[in-house]
Amino acid sequence: MNRFKNIALIFFCTAVWISTQAQDSKRSDKLFEEARKYYVDNNYQAAIETADKLLLKDPEYADAHLLLAEIYKDIDSTRLEIKHLTKAIEFDDNPLIDFRLGESFYKLGMYSEALSFYEKYKENKNIPEKRQFLLACKIASCRFALNSIENPVAFEPTNLGDEINTPNDEYWPTPSLDGKHLVFTRLLKEDGRPQEDFFMAEIDSFDWDNAVPMSEVNTADNEGAQTLSADAKILFFTACNRGDGLGSCDIYFSRLVDGIWTEPQNAGAPLNTSSWEGQPSLSSDNRYLYFSSSRPGGKGKKDIWRIAFNGFAENGTPRWGKPENMEALNTSGDEISPFIHANNHNFYFASDTHVGMGGLDLFTAEINENGQVENLKNMGYPINTYKDDMGLTISSIGDIAYFSSARESDNGLDIFSFNLDRGLQPRPVTYIKAKVSNKATTEPVMADIELVNLNSAVTEPRIEKADEKGQIMLALPVGRNYAFNVSEDGFMFYSQSMRLADENSLTDPFILNIELEPIEVGAEMDLYNIYYETDSFAILAESEPELQKLVSFLKNNSGLKVEIQGHTDSSGNPENNLELSKLRAKSVVDYLVENGIAITCLQSEGYGDTKPVATNETVDGRRLNRRTTIKIIAK
């Protein structure tokens, strides 16, 4: 009898245990479903409280840990995400949890831990093809990051100081070509409402003056992410949610006219679309505007594009070419904050998908004359970290970079500068700053300016116009030779040779006061871009732009009779120099006749070294003495 009671008791206890477990499981499932619904409704706090309540009763409920991990991922609490993924993997052998742990550790810059979980997940044989590619990228990024930390680049950022930075956020610094101005965005908080406006600071000796607001451009709306033309007279920038916008964010522009910035206008289609466009960067020759866009036809979410900028129409609106996707820069992710250096060759941008340290990393690349991308590489640690890094700009000299950071957290985002590692420095740029006037009256002349890259068979001459004050500023990337011409109807034209092909370091700017001489009998112009073979009168091909300029001048002033004069420096034998100068002058006459100029309008003479315009004791002086002169002898 006792034996049967004992057996019955065992069966009773077992049944009660099974029933209790089933009830607990049902209660847990009900709580989980409740937490899941809160999550779907974006009620994260209620979802967390419900899941935590479940785990107090059932700490081994893996799905609750996974749900909490998902919530903490969404609200960017990565360490709590890792905590619950680590718990979940104790009770669930789903290999995808390994991948999720790899992602979480990578997001925190814990590359060794991330690599371990990525490689563990890699052992799984049923990885979807799309994730296989992502996994390979993340493993490569972890290895790159670990190597970069062991081999850091030079990076010692300096805060630009109280003249630039305030307790507000300052970001997106843009230095002018001559390095004397800095335009940036400041986030003001007036009446509790955030307001982005532009500010400009000017450097005085070695210190920045207090930044002042660009009142003509700033509006009651937000303005930011700007780019400045080389002459600091065109501003392109990003503005969002405006009444005249084509998409969520568009690119706008303003122009400096008579010392005042014009009212900002939408830059129009096809630059702007119904998608997001922003973060413009204008090449220093005004040929291309680079920008980021989420428009259809790209490779990823946000891509980097460029579009030909063909100046302004008569009504003042920009004229655009066809947008071009910079495919070699773009990935399936986001590529943003493009910056084309003033040399129009070195390019910088941010990407969250190229191999890097995590988040958005800064990259550098080179763009050749055909628009092809070359030598793309990550800028390295500690410029890049596991956090988002973007918004880098670089001085025209190429040695100083500007960026914004919250590394001094009490002040929010501040603008910093640092000296670029030599391996990251772009080829430096110098510049021409010229003022053109009428030699007879000293009045300013709005002359046509032509700059020809003599080392390129691809690049078209750059043609600009001096402003109402006769002023012009142009970027000159070193490593190339240039012909610089200034012309205006009724005047002799001005010619200057700028030989920078052998320069690889900073060169002093060309500060020119150009006095155009009215076309009168006796007027002369010296041409410095007609070149000959050494000790020969054979004209070199790079003389073509200057000679064609002369042909046009004579055809437009067909009543003139001119003398073509040859001049040399004092090197060598005077008799030989005299003969060579005569032969060279005759070669120019022959070229002009072949190009349609009547021989009756031309005569030639050589003067050897008898009419110097500078000393023959220096290299620069001798260069100035070697010239071709055009003198009007009759009208």
Note down, in words, how this protein is organized.
By secondary structure, the protein is an alpha+beta fold. Helix content is 26%, strand content 31%. The chain is built from 10 helices and 34 strands. The strands form 8 sheets. Strands 2, 3, 4, 5 and 6 form a 5-stranded antiparallel beta sheet that branches. Strands 7, 8, 9, 10 and 11 form a 5-stranded antiparallel beta sheet that branches. A hairpin with a 2-residue loop joins strand 3 and strand 4. Helix 1 packs antiparallel against helix 2, helix 3 runs antiparallel to helix 4 and helix 4 runs antiparallel to helix 5. It is elongated. The relative contact order is 0.06. The N terminus is likely disordered.
Lay out the secondary structure:
Blueprint: H1 2-40, H2 44-57, H3 62-74, H4 78-91, H5 96-107, H6 111-122, H7 129-150, E1 158-159, E2 169-175, E3 181-190, E4 193-204, E5 207-208, E6 212-213, E7 224-228, E8 234-240, E9 249-257, E10 260-261, E11 265-266, E12 277-282, E13 288-293, E14 303-312, E15 318-320, E16 324-325, E17 335-340, E18 346-351, E19 361-367, E20 373-378, E21 393-394, E22 400-405, E23 414-419, E24 429-438, E25 448-453, E26 462-465, E27 471-477, E28 481-487, E29 494-499, E30 510-516, E31 524-527, H8 544-556, E32 561-567, H9 574-594, E33 602-606, H10 619-625, E34 627-634
Parallel strand pairs: 24-30, 32-33
Antiparallel strand pairs: 1-23, 2-3, 3-4, 4-5, 4-6, 7-8, 8-9, 9-10, 9-11, 12-13, 13-14, 14-15, 14-16, 17-18, 18-19, 19-20, 21-22, 22-23, 24-27, 25-26, 25-28, 28-29, 31-34, 32-34
